[in-house]
Predict the 3D structure of the following.
Amino acid sequence: MHKFTLASFALALALPAAAQEEEPVTPGSVVASASAEEWVEIAADDLLVMELAPAADGSERRVVIQLMPPPFSQPWVENIRTLAQAHWWDGTSVYRVQDNYVTQWGDATEEKVLPEGVRSPLAGYESTNGAATEVQMEAMNPIELGHLLEQGTENPEYRRNRAIQEHLRADPYAEQTAFFMGWPIAQGGSIYESPIWPIHCYGYIGVARDYAPDTGTGAELYTIIGQPQRHMDRNLAVVGRVIEGMEHLSSLPRGHGELGFYAEDEEHLRTPIVSVRMASELENAPRFEYLDTASESFASYVAVRANRDDPFYTVPAGGVDVCSVQVPVRPVAE
Amino acid sequence: MHKFTLASFALALALPAAAQEEEPVTPGSVVASASAEEWVEIAADDLLVMELAPAADGSERRVVIQLMPPPFSQPWVENIRTLAQAHWWDGTSVYRVQDNYVTQWGDATEEKVLPEGVRSPLAGYESTNGAATEVQMEAMNPIELGHLLEQGTENPEYRRNRAIQEHLRADPYAEQTAFFMGWPIAQGGSIYESPIWPIHCYGYIGVARDYAPDTGTGAELYTIIGQPQRHMDRNLAVVGRVIEGMEHLSSLPRGHGELGFYAEDEEHLRTPIVSVRMASELENAPRFEYLDTASESFASYVAVRANRDDPFYTVPAGGVDVCSVQVPVRPVAE
């Protein structure tokens, strides 16, 4: 934690010449030096732009969301596209903010009719004790990380993948964790046979539901605003992540009703949602790209995250939590 | 993530009679049924009360901090007591809020003279490459978890401790994690010989510093407002945690200067600190207690956190991250 404020920050940057000659390697410097080919543009169909009502000082509040790619949570993701195309969220609100947990949005009145075709992907399953799990697993269409292995251990991508897993080291919630097509994932056991699932890191978005696991459509969404909530993995559908404007959801006033919902006398604190649009529907839509998680630069980035070696850190951690390896995302340079 | 808003919340609570008869076991229900003897009152000398300027709506903003007990970070904790007794923080401010990272406070002018006796505990060590580490380790006066073992494996406290460690399962940053005297800790290796250290979970407080590791006194403090920042463990001194009013630090507007400091044109966003007092200096000081981490109820609480088994969760996690086991703290009933 840097102590310096702006004045001393300038001072601190005036390092001795020797230190300046050899630029310290930081997660940021690794990302900055990644080659153009290592970045992957996010398809406009996978981007949502949510416009909140302006802040008290009149400034805009735009939140950009990247939707989860196959094979994960696709029935819910499809619902979300339908809801956005129907402009269903326009006029709804952010109605729940629970500290160190979630910010949640959608229709607080619970009376807004859903667009045709939007229903719970688990409709028909009423049990809460196992059946839902099987269905969720099936919906995930589990794939195997092992496909890389088939290319042989000399494959550079395979070797990078193994190196990354060594830095991830151990995980309290899964047999192993990894990165797959730009997303952190967890896995239950052998890489040949076990299901994989998406996880609840900071800024990741899931589908709210009632007690029964078949009650979530994607109309009511939440994002994690504190520590990761990994116990929700496999119990709720992770459908995307915030890639711009997270502060507009994380810094909202907390709710003091049950579970962080705004209480009756706090309803004025709800943040109006002006609109939610697919980027593919917008003129001049923002464009974003993520650092290919199979790239050499991403492997270096994980290594540096696991063992900081720059003037500020003297004890390298020796490992890194999968959620602390935030996948780099940035606007596409025009 | 519960979908229900207040209306449906009432509905959702109207479970079938069978479910109501057998109350589901949740982390909250375990804590609620802990016996009075399992709670430990926090000494008034270990409590700081920070009063921020009132919020825009005129409401009070009080933050209560519990200081770290021996053997951890005591030279800095002692400085913090001295600073509070000198009323040094009165009139300072919260001047840095970086999303998913830290909120930091102290003297933004960097000109306020420190009280007599407050200097960096590492003064005299100028190296950033190893020497500081050794000194920090020494300052921690490493103790051994093994003291429990000496009482024999039949000791109930020993058995509970082992059970907790099994639920904590694995950690990316340390050989093992555990709870010690009400605090989560990490350990580097064998429980007989290895150093232990305090960790950076949500709401935990550390000592800001410049590049050199001997530049932190405790006058400038930060708290974690997003995912745990475990890579800072052993590189910065963890000196306490927020036990009340965390939302007053986590929901502040983010800064857009370098590293989340408020930029020049954002300085009006700084939150004034009205006062910081030791509870022992206050009349009618608030009193708090924590659930003894060596108690039977705490062991049950960890077990339930690791494997939720209530109507909302259908897939138990099978483990839990040490930072996701927040040590229960509550006001002492008057």
Notes: Residues 4-20, 123-150 of chain B have pLDDT under 50 and may be disordered.
